[in-house]
Specification:
With 800 residues, this protein is an alpha+beta fold. It folds into three domains: 188 residues, Alpha-Beta Complex (Aldehyde Oxidoreductase, domain 3), CATH 3.90.1170; 329 residues, Aldehyde Oxidoreductase, domain 4 (2-Layer Sandwich); 169 residues, Aldehyde Oxidoreductase, domain 4. The protein contains 21 helices and 29 strands. Helix 9 packs parallel to helix 10 and helix 18 packs across helix 19. The longest helix is centred in the C-terminal third of the chain and has 28 residues. The protein is globular and about 105 Å long.
Length: 800
């Protein structure tokens, strides 16, 4: 029998091509296209009095210059609010080109289409916009104060106020033997994929068809949006997603103004048109995330057991709400982590500010929620004088309590019900990986060398595999090759490898004979997208089901050809044979020919098929309930999300003089259910840990009070390099398969990033002996905290 590939560390098939420069990204697609450049607002909040484009019209090489007044029909309406919500009472979205007012630096005002990017950029510089400046609202505190409004028709800058509760948290806290009130702050950050946004479009005038290549996480979503805005039938639009140089959430938003404007320009001008953003544009006109302020009231007993938890937070969603409330809903429902919180109430306000819009960034609200919960656990332990791991242990949901219902509604509109897990075992594993119980001896050893170290841990649960569905199509060709298509897109996750492992196992074919296509609406017209750690759960399950359908047809046709019962057949290395009689066999390629009775011998497989007689000669070659071809197509739609989980632990060193923070050791225990490919999962975790370190220590969007982003370049915006990420990350897997899908899979894509800030903050606090309540934290900020703490803890006698 063939060796099973599920669970094996199969080398990624994508890497050789990409590492050797064989990738093809949107900007590599050469159609002799015209280039589009964008006039962007230099102000965070202003009315547009007038736009003068006269100086552009006579520039050689310019083909079009458009403002809002050049748009009509659906293109002149606001962009869609993609995910409405009952509590989103004042949702607002921008126009493809600003109408009357701009609300953040970088908002699109006009476009120029020219022969090349150089001419287009020069022309952009000649467009004159007359502004009436308005007061800018920057940051959560300014939005809460509501002295100025981002949108005149949104009272208090509040787009949404949401409350969820399970039990009477206020009464639980009041009756508890102990209680604490805590405040936490996470600042605004953003993902920085190596490839920014880009789109190319071509209009086929003769056939009335639009082809769009875009760097997106949802090709089918872009297709639907472009068709709706341009007044085209869905079947008139093809969207192809080539190689994508990273997404991390920012490319799930759709449609971006540029996707619509490029498509419209291609249609109107009858020429291919392309747009590729530069890095500054990505900083000021794509999307950010993370910024939230939190207040926590918690009650607990002498063991640290939670008796009531009341959380209020304020979320900064920027100038518009195209992606609804996904981020704060995730933060509010995932905050509870692996714990039994007792009565829980969470309230959030989602607020407008004159800053770049917010869409999910890897973790999507969960890092904020995890930070709040884990810092609260550490505060309880400090208050009681108990070990931080022991306080967590008494609150953990137990293995025999699954499925566990938190009584909350998750971002997919379904119940927050944990499907499986083993949190006590996970805690013991993470303690072992970092020698938690022996850390004090290590601390003493380091102190003897004049070095200051601390240890921290953080736990999380992550909703993954959100619906509504994904589909797959499996086609076995006469060559024996298996062509598989699924609609979601790839941004480096290793889909071509992991999905091929699933198919190879189910069909019994060589791994090398499986080819995976993602993100092409010509191959799979209906899909949702790649986000929320859903690819393996959703498309993996759909591919498994589609392969099973194809296999059923293979065995049915082969049983007729071999005159054997289907139950007696096996498929090994692409050959169907009778169990125990390998000489009685037929190749998959030949079965594919039998499934499509053309009567023509055009290759070796079709010649070989002539020796087999299939079916009853008195019946049609293709039965009434069948169709030609050796194919399988299926969709997977879950009843609700599945929940992955994990725990991270970190040891840091803080320099006594410079306050520099160095990570000495990082460890992860992770449960994503059935592991398809451990190497890919570990790669996801490594990348996520790097981003978690970035969010904890470096990445911060620095706005001034007028709404200008002061660090909109890689010279000023800090990210961790290889020198800031540990050489090795200790990883241990725990597999508790999900009962919600046929393979028992849970998602893994965001696992590495979620608890990073919480674990690192805990380690710094442990090293320094002072509270860490805000992230990210820099050496200068730690230095200042030391000074403040020294003043606060100095007695009057010591100051004399």
């Amino acid at each position: 029998m063939s060796t099973k590939l599920m669970g094996e560390a199969v080398q990624r098939v994508e890497d050789d091509r990409l590492v050797r420069g064989g990738g093809q990204y949107v900007d590599d697609i050469d159609l002799g296209a015209l280039h589009l450049a964008v006039v962007r607002s230099p102000h965070a909040h202003a009315r547009i009095r007038s736009i003068d484009v006269d100086a552009v019209l006579d520039i050689e090489g310019v083909h079009a210059v458009w403002t809002y007044d050049d748009l009509d029909g659906a293109m002149a309406e606001p962009l869609p609010l993609l995910i409405p919500h009952p509590t989103l009472t004042h949702g607002r979205t921008q126009y493809a080109l600003a109408r009357d007012e701009v609300n953040y630096v970088g908002e699109a005002i006009a476009i120029v289409v020219a022969d090349d990017r150089y001419v287009a950029e020069d022309a952009v510089g000649r467009v004159v916009v007359d502004f009436e400046l308005l007061p800018a609202v920057v940051g959560v505190e300014a939005a809460r104060a509501a002295e100025n409004l981002v949108h005149d028709d949104v009272p208090g800058n509040i787009a949404a106020r949401s409350v969820q509760q399970n039990g009477d948290a206020e009464a639980g806290i009041k009756a508890a033997p102990h209680s604490l009130s805590l405040d936490f702050d996470i600042e605004r950050s953003a993902c920085m994929p190596m490839e920014g946004r880009g789109v190319t479009a071509r209009w086929d005038t003769a056939n009335g068809r639009l082809q769009v290549w875009t760097s997106t996480q949802t090709s089918t979503g872009v297709r639907a949006a472009v068709a709706a805005k341009l007044g085209l039938d869905l079947l008139q639009v093809d969207v192809i997603t080539p190689d994508v140089g990273g997404g991390f959430g920012v490319k799930i938003n759709h449609p971006w103004p540029e996707e619509l404007l490029v498509s419209l320009a291609a249609q109107r001008l009858g020429r291919p048109v392309k747009f590729t953003e530069d890095r500054r544009e990505h900083f000021i006109s794509s999307a950010h995330e993370r910024a939230q302020l939190h207040h926590v009231d918690v009650g607990f007993d002498d063991e640290g057991r939670l008796l009531g938890l009341d959380v209020r937070f304020w979320h900064d969603h920027g100038a518009y709400t195209p992606y609804g409330l996904i981020v704060p809903i995730n933060a509010s429902t995932q905050l509870v982590g692996p714990y039994k919180t007792g009565p829980y109430r969470v309230t959030f306000d989602s607020l407008y500010t004159n800053t770049v819009i917010v869409t999910p960034y890897r973790g999507a609200g969960r890092p904020q929620g995890c930070f709040v919960m884990e810092r609260t656990m550490d505060a309880i332990a400090a208050y009681l004088g108990k070990d931080r791991a022991d306080v967590r242990e008494v609150n953990l949901i137990q293995p025999d309590e699954f499925p566990y219902d938190h009584g909350l509604v998750f971002q997919d509109g379904r119940e927050t019900i944990y499907d499986s897990g083993d949190f006590p075992t996970m805690l013991q594993k993470i303690k072992t990986l970092v020698s938690w119980d022996d850390f004090e001896s290590y601390r003493a050893e380091m102190a003897a060398q004049g070095r200051r170290v601390g240890i921290g841990l953080a736990a999380y649960v992550e909703g993954t595999g959100a619906g509504p569905y994904e589909g797959a199509h499996v086609n076995i060709e006469s060559s024996g090759k298996v062509k598989v298509a699924t609609g979601l897109t790839s941004q480096g996750q290793g889909h071509q490898t992991a999905f091929a492992q699933i198919v190879a196992d189910e069909l019994g074919v060589p791994f090398e004979d499986v080819e995976i296509t993602t993100g092409d609406t010509r191959r799979m017209a209906y899909a949702v997208g790649t986000f929320a750690s859903r690819a393996a759960v959703m498309s993996g399950s759909a591919i498994h089901l589609a392969a099973k359908r194809a296999k059923e047809k293979v065995l049915r046709l082969a049983s007729d050809a071999l005159e054997a019962d289907p139950e007696d057949l096996q498929i090994v290395d692409g050959v169907v044979s009778v169990k125990g009689s390998p000489g009685t066999s037929i190749s998959l390629g030949t079965v594919a020919v039998l499934s499509n009775p053309l009567r023509y011998a055009f290759d070796e497989a079709s010649k070989a098929a002539t020796q087999f007689s299939v079916g009853d000669a008195s019946k049609p070659p293709v039965a009434e309930d069948d169709e030609p071809g050796l194919e399988g197509k299926d969709f997977y739609s879950p009843v609700r999300s599945t929940f992955a989980s994990g725990m991270h632990a970190v040891i840091v060193e803080t320099d006594p003089d410079t306050a520099e923070i160095t990570i000495l050791k990082y460890a992860v225990v992770h449960d994503c259910g059935t592991v398809i490919n451990p190497m890919i999962v570990e790669g996801q975790i490594h990348g996520g840990v790097a981003q978690g370190i970035g969010g904890a220590l470096y990445e911060k969007m620095a706005y001034d009070e007028s709404g200008q982003l002061l660090n909109a370049s890689f010279m000023d915006f800090l990210m961790p390099y290889v020198t800031e990420v540990p050489d090795s990350i200790d990883i241990d897997h725990l597999e508790t398969p999900s009962p919600l899908n046929p393979l028992g899979i849970k998602g893994a894509g965001e696992a590495g990033v979620i608890p990073g800030s919480a674990a690192i903050a805990a380690a710094i606090e442990d090293a320094e002996g002072l509270p860490i309540t805000a992230m990210p934290i820099s050496p200068s900020e730690l230095f200042e905290l030391r000074a403040q703490h020294a003043v606060a803890t100095t007695t009057p006698e010591e100051t004399r």
